[in-house]
Specification:
The chain is an all-alpha fold. It has 9 helices and 2 strands. A hairpin with an 8-residue loop joins strand 1 (183-184) and strand 2 (193-194).
Length: 215
């Protein structure tokens, strides 16, 4: 979305409506109705092109849950933001702003699920990591290092309990509550972190630092 324009807003009205009366394009955000209509138009254009090119496998099917709206798109954007470097902070800024910019009737945490957004995205990210670890170990079973056994055990437990499932809230909570499955990885890196808060050097003197900040 940022690459589509140079405005300050993620969704600018310029992206959805070009005025032809000589006035400047509206820099404000589009209405929800305009976004829904734009997505419908894009879907129709894609399907027409797929038919013209005789590629029926590329036709976008009807969504059983109805039209794609901003409330559903919010979760999709959160998925991508969270998985970028510093994504948890960026997500807090972006969606905290969303919360303050909307009314309680539309943007309240309880009504729109923002209250549960962070733990669920964290669980989904952890699930993605363990899924990749399980697949990697099947193709390359050898790992080394002091936490190799914990890494293999975590990937094996995930494969047996969660792989292939669309995590429910209860399953996501169970995954996050299991200390033996807190594995963090980064694509392209040769090391993985099997997080143990009792031994982690990144948590050393955390209490002291917090106390210093509070004073």
């Amino acid at each position: 979305m940022e690459g589509l324009h140079e405005g300050d807003l993620l969704f600018s009205d310029t992206l959805f409506k070009a005025r032809v009366n000589g006035t400047d394009l509206d820099p404000g955000g589009p209405s929800s109705r305009r976004v829904i209509d734009a997505i419908k138009h894009l879907t129709g254009w894609c399907n027409q092109l797929a038919n013209d090119l005789e590629r029926p496998q590329d036709v976008i099917p009807e969504d059983p849950d109805g039209p794609i709206n901003l409330r559903r798109l919010r979760r999709t954007l959160a998925w991508f933001i969270y998985r970028r470097p510093g994504g948890r902070v960026a997500l807090g800024v972006q969606y905290g702003h969303l919360h303050t910019a909307t009314s309680d009737g539309y943007g309240g945490r309880a009504s729109t699920g923002l209250r549960d957004l962070f733990p669920m995205e964290e669980a989904f990210a952890l699930s993605d990591t363990l899924h990749r670890a399980a697949e990697h170990l099947q193709a390359h079973p050898h790992v080394s290092g002091p936490a190799a056994a914990r890494y293999q055990a975590a990937a094996g437990e995930y494969r047996d309990r969660f792989q292939g499932l669309a995590l429910t809230t209860k399953q996501a909570a169970a995954l996050m509550a299991n200390p033996s499955m807190r594995v963090y990885d980064a694509p392209g890196q040769t090391l993985a972190c099997c997080f143990d808060p009792r031994k982690a050097l990144c948590r050393r003197d955390t209490t002291t630092r917090v106390a210093d900040l509070r004073t």
